């Protein structure tokens, strides 16, 4: 009755993934005849390795993909069951990806790559990872697959010029086609994103485009028209390099082309005044005509003006020009002196000239943002009799230096009230949310501002335009995104050295503005010390007004009372023509504090003194207020009226 194994049992072949795996049989027993049923359970052993569909896998991931993106991987298969089946996956160490192992409803395992750090094709074009599948046997069996990740280029790099300013000199009348300068830029991106096209900037004047030609492929700047020094001495040409991406990156540079003068203009003689006819007895030295000679060429070819270029923020007291003149006379007649004539009154405070050698000094530091050009006239005069003189014009141009950082206009910096911009959940990618507005007080290339997202609550949610400052959604907003976002935008100019500043933008993700207002009201307001000051100011105004009203009311009652008393006294005094002087009285103003205590007088009045002037004697003792009469006539009006009113109540003296 022994049950034996007749051949090797393969559980996976018999039952596949079913568990438990069992085989049923029946046994017939004779004498007596009986039938028995039996079942044999085939237990699994870890005799199979996990198997991947292929030995390697290749993924293409764009470098613009934000962190947190997930990429499913093909699963390995293990025919064993239970603990011997596939249990987990492992990923080789790397700085960019992590592995997330998930469990299906049926208990099987699968793995996903999770991007933890954004890729940069310019830093690493390809990543090689190893994915390992492990079962739960003891010892565990495993399988490996090579994962090759190709980093797909995104247009995340703008072209960069190898220098921001190019300088070149070219003689006027140079033939067309002559090479002036060759600009060069590079772009770290690949394919169309890294192909560069050179062109003039949009604000380049038409005249410059007529005189110069730019090769869009090589960046060669050549003469196209006829240069004339007398028309323009310097050309400031702004050029740009743009890649061929869907959203092209742009870089800018400038080329300073100095036109060198050629002596191609003859001097011109102009007769400004003629005395004709000349008397036959005219004395020697009589002026016959006034002539002026001009030459459009420069320097020795025809110097009557000087152009001086000075960097702003210069050191005070530096020499900037030496005006040189010669006189063919001898002795005193050849001794020259230089005088500066200012067309602008400010020039005299800024410039000075040495009378002996013609050296022009700059007395103070100049600011390009205040004034760009100064014009003046230098007169050179000899010491003969009559003295002869000539004038030369001098123009000083202040060249800009990058000494001003960008200034943020919106959002207002250091503002106590913060009202965030609102964007609704579900807003698609590419939607403009707000805009950072800034200006730079510098000029030209130093004033060009670029905007970069420096810090964000969620760096994958928003992006900023490099040259516009526009803030866009980088992906669609989800309901589980954070409700409040704070972005820190870095603003840099293109000067040397680069100056920068930051702007903080608050963005709220909400369905309606009402939600944002509710959030704002929930925030406890900061203690504002000014509200206490306002309360005390209001209280002070109320108290002062009340005191003023009470004072005026009391003064009115007092005046009425005094007026009635004086009226009664006047009526009583009319019955007596003369009255002897009473005892000594002093004016009530003394008690009021208007005059010193030693200011006492004996006052004598008639019955009609209310309608006459008050005459006083000198004070008994010296007083700093002088005589009584001058004090009353020239002093405070209130004092004068109080003296008159009080004196009118004194008894009238007898004749």
From TrEMBL:
Q: How does it sit in the membrane?
A: Single-pass type I membrane protein
| Biological process, per Gene Ontology | homophilic cell adhesion via plasma membrane adhesion molecules
Q: Does the keyword Repeat apply?
A: yes
**Cross-referenced Gene3D superfamilies, in alphabetical order?**
Cadherins
Whether Glycoprotein counts among this entry's keywords is yes
Which Pfam families does the record associate with it?
A: Cadherin, Cadherin_2, Cadherin_C_2
Q: Which GO terms describe its molecular function?
A: calcium ion binding
Q: Which domain of life is it from?
A: Eukaryota
Membrane-crossing ranges are 535-558
Keyword terms of this UniProt record: Calcium, Cell adhesion, Cell membrane, Glycoprotein, Membrane, Repeat, Signal, Transmembrane, Transmembrane helix
| A GO term from the CC aspect | plasma membrane
Recorded coiled-coil stretches: none
Cadherin domain location is 1-52, 53-161, 162-269, 302-408, 415-527
Per UniProt, subcellular location reads as: Cell membrane
Which protein, by its recorded name, is this? Answer: PCDC2 protein
As recorded in Swiss-Prot or TrEMBL, the protein's gene is named Pcdhac2_0
């Amino acid at each position: 009755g022994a049950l034996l194994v007749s051949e090797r049992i393969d559980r996976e072949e018999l039952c596949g993934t079913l568990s438990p795996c069992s085989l049923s049989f029946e046994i017939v027993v004779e004498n007596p005849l009986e039938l028995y049923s039996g079942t044999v359970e085939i237990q699994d052993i870890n005799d199979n390795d996990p198997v991947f569909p292929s030995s390697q896998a290749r993924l293409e991931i764009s470098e613009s993909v934000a962190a947190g993106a997930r990429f499913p991987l093909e699963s390995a298969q293990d025919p064993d069951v239970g603990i011997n089946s596939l249990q987990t996956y492992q990923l080789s160490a790397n700085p960019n990806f992590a592995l997330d192992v998930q469990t299906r409803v049926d208990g099987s395992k699968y793995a996903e790559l999770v991007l933890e750090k954004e890729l940069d094709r310019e830093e690493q074009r390809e990543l090689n990872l190893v994915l390992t599948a492990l079962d739960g046997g003891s010892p565990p069996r495993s399988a490996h697959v090579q994962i090759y990740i190709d980093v797909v280029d995104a247009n995340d790099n703008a072209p960069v010029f190898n220098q921001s300013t190019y300088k070149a000199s070219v003689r006027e009348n140079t033939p067309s086609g002559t090479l002036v300068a060759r600009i060069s830029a590079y772009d770290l991106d690949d394919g169309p994103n890294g192909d560069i096209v050179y062109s003039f900037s949009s604000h380049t004047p038409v005249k410059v485009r007529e005189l110069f030609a730019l090769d869009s492929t090589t960046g060669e700047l050549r003469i196209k028209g006829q240069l004339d020094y007398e028309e323009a001495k310097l050309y400031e040409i702004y050029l740009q390099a743009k890649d061929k991406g869907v959203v092209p990156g742009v870089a800018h540079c400038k080329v300073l082309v100095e036109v060198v003068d050629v002596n191609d203009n003859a001097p011109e003689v102009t007769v400004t005044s003629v005395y004709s006819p000349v008397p036959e007895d005219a004395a020697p030295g009589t002026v016959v005509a006034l002539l002026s000679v001009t030459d459009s060429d420069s320097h020795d070819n025809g110097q009557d003006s000087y152009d001086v270029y000075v960097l702003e923020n210069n050191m005070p007291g530096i020499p900037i020009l030496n005006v040189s003149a010669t006189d063919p006379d001898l002795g005193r007649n050849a001794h020259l002196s230089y005088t500066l004539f200012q067309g602008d009154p400010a020039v005299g405070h800024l410039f000075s000239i040495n009378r002996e050698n013609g050296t022009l000094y700059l007395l103070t530091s100049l600011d390009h943002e205040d004034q760009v050009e100064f014009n003046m006239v230098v007169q050179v005069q000899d010491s003969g009799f009559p003295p002869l003189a000539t004038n030369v014009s001098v123009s000083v141009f202040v060249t800009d230096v990058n000494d001003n950082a960008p200034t943020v206009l919106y959002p207002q910096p250091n503002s106590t009230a913060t009202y965030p911009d609102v964007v609704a959940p579900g807003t698609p990618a590419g939607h403009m949310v707000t805009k950072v507005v800034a200006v730079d007080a510098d000029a030209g290339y130093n004033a060009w501002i670029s905007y970069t997202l420096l810090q964000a609550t969620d760096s994958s949610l928003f992006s900023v335009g490099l040259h516009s400052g526009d803030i866009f959604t980088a992906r669609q907003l989800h309901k589980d995104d954070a409700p409040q976002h704070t972005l820190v935008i870095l603003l840099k100019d293109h000067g040397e050295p680069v100056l920068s500043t930051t702007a903080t933008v608050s963005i709220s993700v909400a369905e309606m503005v009402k939600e944002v207002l509710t959030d704002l009201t929930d925030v406890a307001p900061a203690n504002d010390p000014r509200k206490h000051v306002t309360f005390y100011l209001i209280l002070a105004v109320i108290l002062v007004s009340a005191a003023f009203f009470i004072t005026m009311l009391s003064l009115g009652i007092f005046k009425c009372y005094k007026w009635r008393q004086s009226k009664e006294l006047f009526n009583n005094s009319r019955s007596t023509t003369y009255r002897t002087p009473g005892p000594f009285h002093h004016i009530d103003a003394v008690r009021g504090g208007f005059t010193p205590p030693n200011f006492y007088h004996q006052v004598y009045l008639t019955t009609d003194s209310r309608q006459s002037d008050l005459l006083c004697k000198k004070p008994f003792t010296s007083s700093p207020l002088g005589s009584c009469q001058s004090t009353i006539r020239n002093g405070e009006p209130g004092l004068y009226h109080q003296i008159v009113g009080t004196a009118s109540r004194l008894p009238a003296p007898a004749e």
